[in-house]
């Protein structure tokens, strides 16, 4: 199945309005190591990527290809060796594989903490936290402690906390990888629903090909060691999608074959 051009409303809106890129990554190189610890080891090499406002992009690749490193550079958690990253006027919100909720706080108070750091006045925090819990379909969970929540519920609270930062850019590093297949599928639906109701730009890191095709408008494949943009696919499959949809399966097979070729090429070095 060849990659095609989507006509999704998010992309049409971004192009028609002439908005700047949500993320612009230009000629990014990243190496680890120094003269004192041996030769520098290149992890990313000449990465160029543009994410439009409101676009959902999945970053895919084998383990160790630099996906999380690139996400950390976009988040500002590290600096590139060379090149530049420009954000469209917003500080990104982060969501990781571990929910990182404070166990001594309730679900609502975890969200309120993000609101307080954002400068939201005290009287407005609880109503906003409850609104965000409703958005992720956890209405009534404001007082629940972390140990009372399932893994999927904890990730929903983590998503609500990320949304509380009021950023237009959401960076997600394999947030559903530790969940069982059924819970992961439910959260795919929830994330797609929340994204469709907002103007968020999303950069989502995964090593799961079907997850990438299930969620993204565009799938970007990184090669292995050092990571380079090997190929991109625009996903012209209407949302909502399901993992088992034939079109999702067909494109997943094509991307998987390309991923295997990249892994074999790396294995020859």
From TrEMBL:
Which intervals hold domain ABC transporter? 23-251
Recorded GO MF terms? ATP binding
The record's InterPro entries line, in alphabetical order, gives: AAA+_ATPase, ABC_transporter-like_ATP-bd, ABC_transporter-like_CS, ABC_transporter_ATP-bind, P-loop_NTPase
| SMART domains, per the entry | AAA (SM00382)
Q: Which UniProt keywords apply?
A: ATP-binding, Nucleotide-binding, Transport
Q: Which domain of life is it from?
A: Bacteria
Q: Pfam families of this UniProt entry?
A: ABC_tran
Its protein name is ABC transporter ATP-binding protein
Q: Which organism is it from?
A: Streptomyces orinoci
